[in-house]
Amino acid sequence: MDRETRVFAESHFRGLRGRLPSKVCPTPDRVDFIEKPDSFSYTDFFKRYLLPNVPCVFSSAFTEDWGSRKHWVTPSGKPDFDYLLQNYGDVVVPVANCGVQEYNSNPKEHMPLKDYISYWKEFIQRDHSSPRDCLYLKDWHLCRSPFHADIFRSFSWSVNICGRKKWFFFPPGQEEALRDCHGGLPYDVTAPEFLDSHLHPVLEVTQEAGEMVFVPSGWHHQVHNLEDTISINHNWVNGCNLANMWHFLQQELCAVQQEVSEWRDTMPDWHHHCQVIMKSCSGINFEEFYQFLKVIAERRLLLVKKTGPGELQCSEDSGLGLQHTIFDISRIAEVLASVVVNPDFQRVDTSRFLPQPEDLLQQLQEALATTEPL
């Protein structure tokens, strides 16, 4: 990241004035397709998709050198079961049963990959049906994925190693119109009652083999596999969506508090129990979110070293560069400033935290003051 891009990003977030990007940035009427790697830079991706939080698709040219595309796939473009069995056959994998719905997900079991591939071959031979219902391996989706937004409002990318997928995207906030009388989201947004595009605007994308789909923060989506498919997926949080993650966690705690509100006056340590319940449901609570911020903040602070009055040097081993490090520090500082004044976080026992949240915030602010002229 160069200085111009950092200034552009900081101006973007100042313009939001604490609001989420989804509440300000216009929703696109189509999903962009990025054709050539040579003519598309990280700065392009950062400005056009990460900051405004909108999806895009990268062509297969971006992944043509991936080993998985060479080794996991037959010359005819189908999954290479022999290679997968030889290299991963004894690995125990989680498998979900798409034929059984439990709330908004599917029950899971564990089995060796060789047993799953045996099922998969039988599934293909039976014209993509089985008396065992439709099973899919955790991240190698063989069927439709239930309607969802990615964990912790992270960004994600998904690459088809082989096969084709149909994606249905709903911009942040649009999912509210899909909730039932109990506040639940539908399991399948392709059901007839949701097909009216005027009532429920949706962006549709067909992803071909080798292509990569970028899924922005908070965009609910559903995915259908159009043929036998293997995909690789990755989730991440950075300075662009860190505030989205914090907002999501506040919403999760609020939902827990509402659910157990009738015991607020009679349950000892009610607020603590809400944090425990939140962690069991969401996988993280406010204490762990602070620890997450702390780890990233301390790593970023270690990357910058004061070399003189108003002069900083960034570690060459980081791969980030000085400007990106400064950007990250500024985003962490803004979110942490919101965390430390949050009434529910103030009820968390932070006596054993090192450093204390306020002290860490001060370190970040001091680093930013030093970098202001840069």
Bin the helical content: 25-40%
Shape: globular
Q: Which structural class do the helices and strands define?
A: alpha+beta
Mean pLDDT: 89
- Please write the string of helix (H) and strand (E) elements: HEHEHHEEHEEEEEEEEHHHEEHHH
Report the end-to-end length measured between terminal Cα atoms.
13 Å
Q: Quick one: how many beta strands?
A: 14
Largest sheet entry: 5 strands, mixed
Side-by-side strand order of the widest sheet: 1-2-10-7-12
What is the helix tally? 11
Beta-strand proportion: 15-25%
Given as residue ranges, the uncertain stretches (5+ residues, pLDDT < 50) are none
Rounded to an integer, what's the Rg over CA atoms? 23 Å
Summarize the structure.
With 374 residues, the protein is an alpha+beta fold.
Structural account:
By secondary structure, the protein is an alpha+beta fold. The strands form four sheets. A five-stranded mixed sheet has the order 1-2-10-7-12, with no helix packed on it. Strands 6-11-8-9 form a four-stranded antiparallel sheet, with no helix packed on it. The protein has helices at 3-16, 42-50, 67-71, 81-88, 113-125, 242-259, 270-282, 286-303, 322-340, 343-346, 357-371, and strands at 32-34, 56-58, 92-97, 108-112, 135-137, 145-148, 155-162, 165-170, 203-207, 212-215, 220-225, 230-236, 304-308, 311-314. Helices cover 36% and strands 18% of the residues. Helix 2 (42-50) links the parallel strand 1 and strand 2 (56-58).
